[in-house]
Structure formats: structure tokens, C-alpha cells
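Q: What would this complex look like in 3D?
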Amino acid sequence: MTRRAVGFGYPGGYHAGMTRGAELICTGTELLIGRTVNTHVQRLALALEPLGLELTRETSVPDHRETIAEVLREARTRSEILFITGGLGPTNDDVTREAVADALGRSLRRDPESLERIRHRCLRLGQAFTESRQRQADVVDGAVVLPNPVGAAPGERIELEDGRVWFLLPGPPREFEAILETQVLPWLAVHRPGQPRLRRLWMVCGLGESDVIEILKQAGFEPGPLELAWCAAPGALEVRLTTGPEHADWLERAAQVVRAALGPHVYAEERLDLVEVVARQLRSRGATLAVAESCTGGWLAARLTTYPGSSEWFRGGIVAYANEVKIQQLGVPEPLLATHGAVSEAVALAMARGVRERLGATIGVGITGIAGPTGGTPEKPVGLVWWAVADETGAAAVSRRFPGDRELVRRWAAQFALDHVRRRLLGLPPVA
Amino acid sequence: MTRRAVGFGYPGGYHAGMTRGAELICTGTELLIGRTVNTHVQRLALALEPLGLELTRETSVPDHRETIAEVLREARTRSEILFITGGLGPTNDDVTREAVADALGRSLRRDPESLERIRHRCLRLGQAFTESRQRQADVVDGAVVLPNPVGAAPGERIELEDGRVWFLLPGPPREFEAILETQVLPWLAVHRPGQPRLRRLWMVCGLGESDVIEILKQAGFEPGPLELAWCAAPGALEVRLTTGPEHADWLERAAQVVRAALGPHVYAEERLDLVEVVARQLRSRGATLAVAESCTGGWLAARLTTYPGSSEWFRGGIVAYANEVKIQQLGVPEPLLATHGAVSEAVALAMARGVRERLGATIGVGITGIAGPTGGTPEKPVGLVWWAVADETGAAAVSRRFPGDRELVRRWAAQFALDHVRRRLLGLPPVA
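A: Here is my prediction, written as C-alpha cells for the whole assembly.
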């Protein structure tokens, strides 16, 4: 995914001073040896945004007491709000507590209430109440303890003499989030509110960044004091306008222009997965969906069933990798495969109709393509995908050649097929 | 995923001095506003490991020239090898080139060869050869230009007076990787080799960290000068021993103990996805696979088809979400569903047999369970999954209650079902 501020006339990029800054320090050797992708940065940034707080720096360091203390000392005078994650567990490489105490020149104390919670937890889980587990009750002198509703090690809030505040949070995402949501964000909202920012956003399918620029230019869109930015994922583009409360009227006018210009390309005006939007459409009509997948190999079905309650509107799917499966399970006529090949309009249509009928769904989807890296020909290159949507009124197929590697082609294809369903339910033609 | 060094007797954690340090600075506002997960850290760490180089710090900062220059000045004397990614594109928030020049007190020059490559690229893609695109040919004075085989902006290698080296690499992962692999790693291997480290690893399915500790203890495993560490993902655990070349004999002896103790729980002795292992087994026997999924909703099929060439051994799958689909598409007898319920041994077996027969595969897999968060009962709680494997000799089913949320349950279930296939192909019983 990329995010860029748009060119025309507007400086774009980072806006120091518009929002209040917070900094994140992640401790954990696992983050630096390539075996864990750091998701805390994203989780924290999204949680801070509504408070008008922005991350201005993130640093990851190994589980090494001196290194952590050094990084904390560097951040001490730089940042007003500091989040420190990881290294609060029971093992001997969990040294963040000690490093924080070192950096602040404070000592650790064993918190009786935390100790009691840990003892109860050990009892409940049948674990020995060992010294290493008891260590998790050690907190920095002067810290406010933030009880951990889903794990052993508590978080801590340390208010420094100069008004700065440090938060220590456990590394496991579930525990990190639980303490963040119940005890950090509510406190920040009251005690360290950021500058409020007004935002409007549109989730778009079927258009790229340059398409959107062109459309907005032609619609006479004028950013003025608004920040126009976007995030692109395969098949989905978030278009976003942000500004201060003093420009509320300008934002409102611009939003009307953007909304009208992007029209049915917009599938949501909040951050939603296209699956959630289609699920709402299906639910409100009492309609059901079934999917027949070749190149996407089950990826669309897996995405559809990510959401609890999908059984209400999702009948099931057929992953027809072998041609015999297309013939026998979906009723694709053998001559069609012989004449047109598996990646063709005719086969996509037959798959959509077949899965709809055989699985008893209101709407059927068929996807067939060449995900690559091999299997392409001059007429049917890697990235070419045909997809079709069938309902009680008929069926329609479209094709597109998607860029990128195997995984990207699969993701694009699933997203475009899903957008085709959304458009068909709205009575709109698909994007080709 | 978590990674921890094991307790018994060994200090664990970060080992300064064992490997040579490199540092990564990622520039890009998108990394700090929550819309992009930073994958460069992981990619780079895994690429550096075989060279005996280790990341000792990672910092992410927004696209802000002064901030980037400040971070670079801090890193100037700290790190021997510095990687700087992002901000080399054409838009006006791409300021990394300028920030690097600022930090080093050098100027930028427009590289004629890069300019020529960009001109050709614009011609080929039908893009205007604008000044903003030409800016991408600006490089820091004294830098060696690293041509970009897949994008416009070249990378740069800057060797500083004191022997330190800085690499500038584009942010888009494809471009980052292309330059890293073709021009950075080969150079480092020759000019900045790290301390060699010996490693042995075992990929394990069906055991947790505490199980492995217990098994190794009972087998008389003695870590001595070896670092024992692991990384856990749903259903897969990487167990790893690392040491210096002086302890090669100890490592060899310990590896034999570990290998014997973990036995058939080990599915690979290198970093492999279980799918790749099962694919090799199937290919070598000329066998094929078909999967019937309920709670995993297509996730297993999507994983199997991630790999090019899976059409050789994967026939297809049926995502049987609705009970009618289980009955009609898989031939699960209706009375079986009525008597035992959809999440039961009998239904898992019928699904595995049905999909094997109907899709004409050597081996059939059936998975049915309660992924949650709702739908659980006291007898059939959330997380309970039954899965079965059928082949020409018969079928077997196992159940397990998996921890975690909906996505985790789905991932665990797919992994355990796949491990069941691996074991059946080896003539071993499944892990229950």
C-alpha cells in the first residue's frame, strides 16, 4: 500500500504542528530478526487518529537493557507522549521494566495488587506461581499500574515532572490492545487531547490514484486548505480529505464535489472492507451468494467468511482448479473449455451460472484467470482474469489484465469480482 | 508470533558482538498513520541473516526533510551499515535524497545514466517525461548508483570516509527487493561480511513451546553454548539452535538429540511452509488432493493455491457453508447432520470421503468446526474443530479445541488438517 499527498498546488506530506506528536518504542528481538511483522505501529496510529494525536516516530530495538535505556533517554526530551511496548513478560530476556527504571533513574517496586492478580491467574490456569511470573508485578516507582484484563503483566503510566507521559504496554497484541482501549485512550482523551481534525473519506474500487486526480480536476475540485491523501490496496483506494475545524465549510463543499465526481465508484464513506458492504446489501435483500473460483483458489470464499455471520448470506463455494471439476461440479460444458479455453468469457459465465444453480444461491460468481508466474501466452498473458456475476435476470462477464505477482493478481481479481456483485445489486454495469 | 530464548540455564535474548550490526531507517508518512504495515524490517532481516549481519535498530519517520536528516545524523556514528528506505519517488513529499545530502553535508547531482533510463521508461509506459520524474535521477554526490530493474528511482550506495556504508533504497517492496538482491547483498557479502553463525532449525506442527521444552528436558538436551530460540505461528513452531563456529561439534550432538526427541513432529529442517512439504510429498507420489471446508471457508484451498504449480496436485475444493451444500455437493447424508450436527466426527469423515470421490482426488480432507465468536454450546464450544483425511485405504478424523479468535481458529484448523495429510502420507497417526 502507498499513501501520498496529491500534487496539484498543495504541498502535501507531513504537517508538523497540525496534530500533537506521540512516539512509539517497540522492544523485542523478534521484531528485528525477521520472524515477526510489527503491527503495533498501525494499531496505535489508528487508535490515536480520532484523538487528533499522530505518531511522529517509531523505533524498534532488541531485548537488550542498555540499548532500550539508551533509546528511552534519547526520546526523553523529544516526545510529549511515549509508548513503550514489549519485554514485560516473565522470561529473562524481558528487560523493559528495568530499562525504563534505568532511563528515569528510578527503582522498581513489586506491586501487591498486580502480584495478587498474577497469583489468581496462575491458580486459574494451573500454572506454578514462580519467581519469574512474580517478576511481572514489578513496576517503576511512581507509575500508575494499568491492570491487564487478558494477561499477566500489567501496563504502566508514568507522568514525568515536566508533564510528559510514558506508557508501558505488553507486547502480545491482544494484551496491548486491551490495555490501550480500556485505560490509555480514555485517559489521553481527557488529559492530553490533540488538535481536532475534520476528515471525510471515500472507499473506491476500480480507479487508480491518477484516475482520481483526473476526475477531480475535471470536476473543478479545489483543495485549498484541505489535505487530500490516499491509501491504495489491491482493488481498493481510500481517498481522504483532512483539515482543521476552521475550514469546515470548505471541507463540506469539497466533499460534495468529490462525492458527485466519484459517483458509483465509491463503495463506502467510512473505512470498510468491500466484503462488509456487499454483506449489508445481501442481508438487506435476503439474498445469498455462491462463488466458483479457479485462479483465486478459494481466496474470495476465505475473505467472505472472515466475518462472523457470513453463513446468513454465503452458501458456499467451489474451487474448480482442475477442468474436470469445472465440468462435473459446475456443469461447465466440455466443448466450451475445448473451444474457448478455461480462461474465457464463456467459461466465467458458465461457472457463475453453475455455482448459482448448484448451490442454490441468489447470486453466483465465477472467476477464471492466469495468476502466474507461468501459464501465460501472447493472447492470454499472465494477469488476465475473466469474472462473471449471475443472478435471476441473467449474467455478465468482464475481463482485465491485473499487474503484479501471483498473490496480487489473486487479490485484485477477488476484489473486482466482489465489486461486480455490489454494482449488480445496485443495477449498475461492472467496471471493465 | 512470538520469539523467546529458552530459560533453562541460558541467558537468552540479544547477543551483542556475536554478529555485526546494521540499522534500518524507514521514511514514509504512510508508515506512521496506520495505513501501511512495514514489511521492510522483516524482509531485510531475513536477507541479512545468511551474511551473519543482524539488524540492531529500526526507525520509522514521516516524509519530513528535517526529521529524516536528524535521524540520519543520530545514526551516523552509531551504525556501521545503514539502510534508508522510501522517499525516492517523484512527488514533492519524496524528500529522502535531500535529507541524506543534508545529513552528510553533500550536494545532489543529476545522474545522466539514471536520467536516460527514466526517459526510456517514460517512453515505454507512455508517461510524460516531467521534471518531477526527472528528479528521481538526482543522487547524492559521491554515491554509487544502483540501477532499479523494476522501477524509476535508482538506489544508491554511499561509502563514508570512516568505512561506514549507507544504502538508499526505494520504498515500494518490489523495487526495494530487486535492488537489495541484485546489488546490495552481493556487495555486502564481499565487502562487509559478518561473523559466521551456525544454525539448525526444525519446523514443528502439533507442539507448543512448553511441550518442546518438556520433551527436550526429558531427552537430556543440554544447551551449553547454544542459543535455543523459537518462533510460533498458528500451528507451526520453528525451533532453532544457533552458535559460533567454535561450537560446531556441540551443535551437531545437540541437533541429533533434538531431532530424535521431536521425531515425526518435525515437518521440515529448513524454513518451509507446511504446504510446500505436503506438495512435495504429493508430487513425488503422483497423488492429488481435494478439500471440503466449512469453518475454514476456503482458507485451506487459498493457502494450497498460493504456490505456482499447485494445479499439478490440487484438484479443487468445496466450501460447504450451508448444510444443503454439504448434502448436495459432498454427499453428506442428511440423517448424519441431523443426528450428530454439522460439527462432528461423522460429518468430517463424510466430507473428506465425499470431496475425494466427487473431485476424483487421491486424498480428501474435510474440516468442520465452530470458528466463533458465536455459535458455541457447552458441548460444542467456540474453537472446536473436527477434521478428517480420507484416502484409498480408509479415513480418520480428529478433533481439537483451538484457542484464539475466529481468524486464529481458522488458521490452526487448516494447519492441523494439512499436518494430518502429511502424517497419513508417511503412515503416521494424526496429532489429536
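A: To summarize the key features: Chain A has three domains: 19-191, 198-268, 276-425. Chain A touches chain B through 93 residues (CB under 8 Å).
Q: Very helpful, thank you.
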